Amino acid sequence: MQVKWAALGEVFLVGFGVAVSVVLLFTLGVLGLSARATARERGAGGGLGQAVAGVCFAACGAVVLYGVYLIAFG
Q1: pLDDT mean across residues, the chain
Q2: Given a cut of 90, is residue 14 above it in pLDDT?
Q3: Which pTM value belongs to this model?
Q4: ∠ CA 67-31-61 to the nearest 5 degrees?
Q5: N or C terminus: which one in the chain shows less Cβ crowding within 10 Å?
Q6: How much is the pLDDT for 73?
Q7: SS in 3 state form for the chain?
Q8: Which residues cross the membrane (predicted)?
Q9: Is 1's pLDDT higher than 90?
Q10: Hey, how many other C-beta atoms are within 10 angstroms of the C-beta on 29?
């Protein structure tokens, strides 16, 4: 039995990249919600922050669901 080091490294890099991307998207979503709250405190609408948060959280959910799909049916 031999270890395929190149494949192992590729899996590690892809997994690390996806993990960092999901954390970044989630962070941007929380930042968007914070911007919305700040805008509402100042009397503005805050629609842009809410839109950014919605897109970021939807992207996080899509990545997670795709990962579950790959595990279940891949």
Answers
A1: 94
A2: yes
A3: 0.83
A4: 20
A5: N
A6: 94
A7: CCCCHHHHHHHHHHHHHHHHHHHHHHHHHHHHHHHHHHHHHCCCCCHHHHHHHHHHHHHHHHHHHHHHHHHHHC
A8: 12-35, 47-72
A9: no
A10: 20
Tokens representing 47 are: 């629609």
Tell me the CA end-to-end span of the chain in Å, nearest whole number.
Answer: 24
Note the Cα 36 to chain centre separation in Å.
19
Tokens of 40: 């509402």
Q: Which amino acid is at 47?
A: G
Q: Please name which of 37, 33, 26, 25 lies closest in space to residue 50, comparing C-alpha atoms.
A: 33
Q: Look up tokens 């891949």; give the residue.
A: 74
Phi then psi dihedrals of residue 68, to 5 deg: -65, -40
Query: Per the structure block, which two tokens stand in for 59?
Result: 């992207």
Mean pLDDT value across residues 32-55: 91
| CB-CB contact of 52 with 36 (8 Å) | no
Residue type, 64: V
50 class by beta-carbon count within 10 Å (0-12 exposed, 13-18 middle, 19+ buried): middle
